[in-house]
Design a protein that fits this description.
The structure is a single chain. This protein has 512 residues and is mainly α. The protein has one domain: Sodium/glucose cotransporter, CATH 1.20.1730. It contains 20 helices and 2 strands. Strands 1-2 form a two-stranded antiparallel ribbon. The chain is globular. The chain starts with a helix and ends with a helix. It is found in: Cell inner membrane; Cell membrane. Belongs to the sodium:solute symporter (SSF) (TC 2.A.21) family. It catalyses: L-proline(in) + Na(+)(in) = L-proline(out) + Na(+)(out).
């Protein structure tokens, strides 16, 4: 494969911009651990909103969803509907309270920190359990993103897969280690803007090349007539309900439940300047998400029409690379380089967020709590940087074998975080009766239920449990029941502690 120099120029400019942002953030917000891990709670709502969106979507937005639409039709878009609803509810019900309550609870700068301070957990059990969950799952999650970066460089430029791993991880690691949370958030903002432009530009230009929606639909229908399309019938492709069972629909919509427990997303809410700014962040974030999701769906649909009309089936070995094919076919290499940078932006924004959350747990929740409680701020910042390097090296090691199936763990990690943390986060913000033991029981029950649902050798009609119902549904339900049940039982033993809950309720009422 020939590497086009114009694409290299565009990607090099993108990499230099990321590094420049890292150095800017280094000068602005790395004097203490609060600034390094949370930006000193001075994040602009626009930066917070796009940072949350970009770190959330990853390569799924530009590769996974278009590929699913290309292959399966519009019924595959229900997962995007569920995620959009979940994102809105997260902004509406979690963001304002979490922003305020984490500051009131001894200025908690990590999720485990918040759990411990919220329940006055002197045993550190909550902190340890939640930190371990974050470190283990995010190391695998990060590895999945690095794998995607390696495959992108391999598919687009014909580079060695392992070299692609080091390029992807190296750039992310550089600006994350240098600039910390502010660098990650600012780069996420720029990356979110790039993704936004790309997901408008590619489907619009492809549609113009096709001659409009009518021509695109005719091309897709022609594919069904000739038997070249994979989906069985045109009716199935254009239907939003064809082949979807009640349990399948619940599973797709339930992806939205995962938002309440994703540390790399909700930590953005903790960093926004004020509670009043959350409403503006919600408007910006949801507008960005709706436009980009629609754009991703159109990339898959119009991409199918374009491939069919121009006989490009042989050039598309993997439907998930339809965005890459359209970018390199329809645009000048200088522009296609920018569009390929959009995919890198989606991948890198998630990797950097996960690296920072993992390193913050290693630093604040393990090193400072169990090893060096008297550590200075400069020492903690240094340990945070070293922890970021350590997590990235482990992630690269896990991704080094190209045949490894780490990417399949992404959906499992989403369910694990959503079930383990989601119910506890919601209950801790809205129910003062939640106890330390209840929170711990909910966290453990949610994670264990997800794992059992995935790996128990039980089938229903020959299908595994997870293929019948997404594991986050039973995990979320069981975690909620465990947290509430154990808390109610504990209230007869001793009065639950809810540090700062009454003050938070008053402050929220004043802000709203």
């Amino acid at each position: 494969m020939t590497i086009n120099p114009f694409e290299i120029i565009s990607l090099s400019a993108y990499f230099l911009l990321m590094m420049a942002i890292g150095f800017y953030a280094y000068r602005k917000s790395t004097s203490d651990v609060s600034e390094y891990m949370l930006g000193g709670r001075k994040l602009h709502p626009a930066v917070g909103a796009l940072s949350a969106g970009a770190s959330d979507m990853s390569g799924w937005m530009l590769m996974g969803l278009p590929g699913a639409i290309f292959l399966g039709g519009f019924s595959a878009a229900w997962i995007a509907v569920g995620l959009t609803i979940g994102a809105y509810l997260n902004y509406r019900f979690v963001a304002p309270r979490l922003r305020l309550y984490t500051e009131m609870a001894d200025d908690s700068i990590t999720i485990p920190d918040y759990f411990e301070n919220r329940f006055k957990d002197t045993s550190h059990a909550l902190r340890l359990m939640s930190a371990l969950v974050i470190i283990i799952f995010f190391t695998l999650y990060t590895s999945a993103g690095i794998v995607a970066g390696g495959k992108l460089f391999e598919a687009s430029f014909g580079l060695n897969y392992q070299l692609g791993l080091f390029i992807t991880a190296g750039v992310v690691l550089a600006y994350t280690v240098i600039g910390g949370f502010l660098a990650v958030s600012l780069t996420d903002f720029v990356q979110g803007c790039i993704m936004f432009i790309a997901l408008i530009l590619v489907p619009v230009v492809a549609l113009m090349a096709m001659g409009g929606f009518d021509a695109a639909k005719t091309s897709v229908l022609t594919g069904f007539t000739s038997g070249e399309n994979i989906t069985a019938t045109a009716q199935e492709y254009f239907s939003w309900t064809q082949g979807i069972t009640v349990m399948g629909f619940i599973s797709l919509m339930a992806w939205g439940l995962g938002y309440f427990g994703q540390p790399h997303i909700i930590v953005r809410f903790m960093a926004i300047r004020t509670v009043k700014d959350v409403a503006l962040a919600r408007w910006i974030g949801m507008s960005w998400m709706v436009v980009t999701v629609i754009g991703a769906v159109l990339v898959g649909y119009i991409g199918l029409a374009y491939v069919q009309a121009n006989g490009l089936q042989d050039q598309l070995s993997d439907p998930e690379t339809i965005f890459i094919l359209l970018s390199q076919t329809l645009f000048h290499p200088l522009i296609s380089g920018f569009l390929l940078a959009a995919i890198l932006a989606a991948i890198m924004s998630t990797i950097s967020s996960q690296l920072l959350v993992s390193s913050s747990s290693l630093t604040e929740d393990l090193y400072k709590t169990f090893l060096r409680r008297e550590a200075s701020q400069s020492e903690l910042v240094l340990i945070g940087r070293l922890a970021t390097v350590l997590v990235s090296l482990v992630a690269i090691f896990l991704a080094f074998d190209r045949s490894s199936n780490i990417l399949s763990l992404v959906s499992n990690a989403w369910a694990g975080f959503g079930a383990a943390f989601g119910p506890v986060i919601l209950l801790s913000l809205y129910w003062k009766g939640l106890t330390r033991d209840g929170a711990l029981a909910g966290m453990v029950t949610g994670a264990v239920t997800v794992l059992l649902w995935l790996y128990l050798p039980i089938t229903i009609g020959g299908a595994s449990l997870s293929s019948v119902l997404y594991e986050i549904v039973p995990g979320f339900i069981m975690a909620t029941l465990a947290a509430v049940g154990v808390s109610l039982w504990g209230r007869s033993v001793k009065k639950p502690v809810a540090k700062g809950f009454a003050e938070m309720e008053v402050a929220i009422a004043e802000q709203e």
